[in-house]
Each structure stands twice: as structure tokens, then as C-alpha cells.
Amino acid sequence: MALSEFEKKRQENIQRNKELLQKLNLDSLSNNISKEIERSSPSPQPTTKKRKLVTKKEPKEKNIPTRRSSRLRGIQLENENPEEFEKQREENEAKEREKRELETLKRTKLFGDFKLIDLITDKQKGGMLFENKIRPQMKAKAEGEEIETDEKMLEKENEVLKLIQSLGNKYSAGDFYEQITKNEKLASNQDKDVESKRKEFSSKKIYSKFDPLDIKLTHNRITSIVFHPSTTERIVAAGDTNGNLGIWIPDSSDEDNPTISILKPHGGNISKLLTPPNQLQKIFSSSYDGSIRSLDLNKLSSEEVFSLNDSSLGGISDINIVRENPNLLYMTTLDGLFYNYDMRTKPSGRNKTLLRLADKKIGGFAINPNNWYQIATASLDRTMRLWDLRNISKSEYSEYEDQKSPHMYGNFTSKLSVSCVDWNINNHIVCNGYADYIDLFNFNDSNPEITKWNDKYMPGNVKNKNQKDDNVITLPDNLVPFNRIKHNCQSGRWVSIIKSKWQENPADGVQKFIIANMSRKMDIYDEKGNILAHLTNGLGAVPAVCTLHPTQNWAVGGSASGKIYLIE
Question: In the predicted model, is pLDDT for residue 156 greater than 80?
């Protein structure tokens, strides 16, 4: 077979290179280099690992003479100094006896009261650091003696105990859902309706059509959420810190991606979303930018409903619509003000009728579903207050001058700020705040009932007779919760404020409210404070802003990343 011109040329180049290498004597040099590399390179490791056996070296013993004199051991002979010898012998016997007694005490149980700092153990050895102190103290207590405790010992351990004490506030009653339900069964005092609801909620599952990580309803942290009353074509809307409003249709036929639209109707935090009972095609939104807008789902339009024309009044913190008259829109501001607006009229001169309900931010308010003129407010000033809008007069409880306020029925003071308040149709109020409690009030059991309070009803301790300084404001503190539920509300900076919310019109007739749990759960309670559900399935973040469907037992919660979790 004849070679091509290209192959001939290649063979010539190969031959020429060989001759050149032979002349330069590079072949032997290359072989030497290869051998040197082979010698210096480590041998390849076997594919299977071998266990490395390490022999444990025994500690070397000191060469101690087999016999040591009593003098070297520090023992005096009896015949050298009998008195000293006897004294030393008694001391040694006393020490041995005390040691045996302490060892015996270690194996007995503690009784009496102690501070935790006294019961700290050694992290390395395991024994009590204050063993020599606690056990004799316990013995002395049993014998009726009093021993003072040294408060200056182990400051570092005391700091750890303070940390443990602070952690005691970072739990919620819902975290012990299994124990609570189990104990109620053992005590045979479980309500049949409560048991039925617990079984129903235990069967609920997270929306499975899409991965929850793919259902991102807003661009930023969710601050408000609403579940549309529709039960066939469900709609969930959520607002975030930047004024974005996302709308999600869970029952859409789109099989590839969630049906989500994200709008931006506001320039600031969206504080509240609601659907008017007489206009179900609309979603109202309020914002810290001082405006209230209406989103029409049929016309696909956004209209301005209300706007504060004075920026010094702060943004709008909450809105609600009166059940008896859906044209009446109530609102509160970040500056503690309240306004009643009739949407059938033009909002001219509206800022002149603002009422002072608090000197600090009002986080939320609620209207009594049975009486349009009664409202409850939750404020940063650590109070939850009840008001009667029929009687307006000069404010008695404001530090601002020339302020007008409605008539105050009463006041509840918390240790820390109250974040929210909500009122159900059975005259039960739920509120919670940073004091880590959910407080429940039942005004049907009070005397007189709140439904019978008139505009002249005054709390019994409005005026303090012993108060001499007229500039000091004395608030009544006559509202007392009938139940307090432990709940961790320390959401921090990056998680939205946790707020409790009643179900509006439960189809099953069971009044219940929902609240987010900082352990990435949603807790549901009835109006008596019985826990009905501890929803845990598939929640990848804290659903800080959550709500129930107005009629059905479906729950939805939004996270700091804009994700939505639907439990159905």
C-alpha cells in the first residue's frame, strides 16, 4: 500500500528527531530523570484503608524506694513527741470520718431548697463543684441549723444559669402538644369537640402540587396575608416590607409553575390586607406610606381609597371594615391615632377628625362584631384598651395637649408592648405581645357584660384619690384575662411580628385562632385556650404571618423570604 505524502513527511520527521536525540545523548538523560522521579515519588496507596494501630504507652512510674522512713512521710513517732503524735492522729481520724460521711451523703437524695448555682457539676469529672458545701448544708438544715450561702462563687457558672433562665422564655405551650393531649387523655377530662378537632387537624397536609420552596409570593419579608373567602377558586394574597403585593391561585390548572402575580401598589410596608364582605372581588391594602388602596380582581385595576395628606401622622398600621355597615372603614396610625372614614363620601378635611388612642404606635385594633361602636387597640405603650366611639371628649390619658379621644371602657397593661388584638363574635378577645403570653378575655362572663356597657360606663379606678400631681396620667387596669397561654413571641429583627388571629366565620361553629410558632410551626387554639393543632408538616421556615380561611379549616403562613405554606 503506497504511503501518502503526509505520512511520508511524518515518518521523515520521526527519523530526523531520533537521530538528533542520539547526537545530543538525551535518551540516557531522559532515562536517568525518569528513574530519579520514580525513586522520589511515593508508592501508590492501596484502595482499601488499613486501621492504624497505636500502642498506648504506659506512663512511667517514678522510681520510689520500697521503704521510706516515717520522717520522709511526715509522720512523727510516738516516742519522739507523744502529745503532738496524739493530736495528729485525732486530726487524721476526723478527716477520714468526715470523708466517709460525705461519701455516704453523696449517695442520698437532696431535700430542701437550693439555688441552681449551688448544684452546678464539674463538666470534666462529673461531681458537684459545691459537694463539700451542699451536703453539709443539707445535713445542717435537717438538724435545724442555718447556713448562709456564698453568692460570690462561680460567677462564670452563674452566667450560664442566667442564660438558661432566659431560654426558659423561648418556648411555647404548643411545643408540648403531644404531652398536653396525652395528659388530658390520662386525666379523662378531654372535651369530645376538642378531640374531634384535633383529629381533623392532625390529618391536614401541606399543599403538595408544588414544592413550597417554589411558591415565592413576595420579593421580601411577608408582613400581611389574607385568605379570600372563596372555597372553589382559592386565592391567597400577601404583602411585604417594600410594598409588593403577591397573589397566588393554588387551584390553578397550570401544572408547571405556581400561578403567582406580584404587584407593587405601595411604596412601603403593607400592614394589612382584607376583603370587604360586600365586595368579594376586591382586596384592600394599607401601608406605612399612609395610603389605602383597593385591588379589583375583576377589573384588574388598583384604586386609591384613602391617603393621609400629612406625613407627620405616620403610616397606617391597621384597617378594618364594620360588619353592620361595610361602607365604614376604621384605621389606626403608627403615631397612635384613629380615624373613622365613610367610603361613600369624599375624604376632604379628614385629618381634622383624627382621635388620639395612644401616644405610641398602635400595632393593631379590632371592632366588636356585635357593636360597631366598640373597638379594642393594642399599642407599643404596653396596653390593650377598649373604647366607645359614641362619646368623644378631651383626652384624659394622653401626654399630648388638646387631643380628643373616645370614651375608654378599660385598660390591660402588659410587661412589654402588645402587638395585636382580635375580637370574635362570642365577645372573646385574644391579644399577644413581647411579654411571651397569649391573653384571652371573655366579656360575656364579666359584670356588667360588655354588650350592656353604655357610653357613660367608667372603670372603678379611673381616678387615683391619693394622686396629688395632676400631670401624672393614671390608667385604669380593670381588664383581666381569664387565661394566659405561654408563647414565645421573640421574633427578632428578621422575622415579622407574631400576631394571633381569629377565624372569621368558622363553618364548623368552633371559634378558633391561629398564631405562628417560632419553632417553624402554626398553633391553633379554641376560645377557651385548648390547643387544637400544632401544624408541623413541611414548614421550612417560621410562618410568622399566618391566618385561617374565613370558613374552612385551611391555614396559610408566610415567611421572611416571601415563601408561602398552605396546610389543607
Answer: no
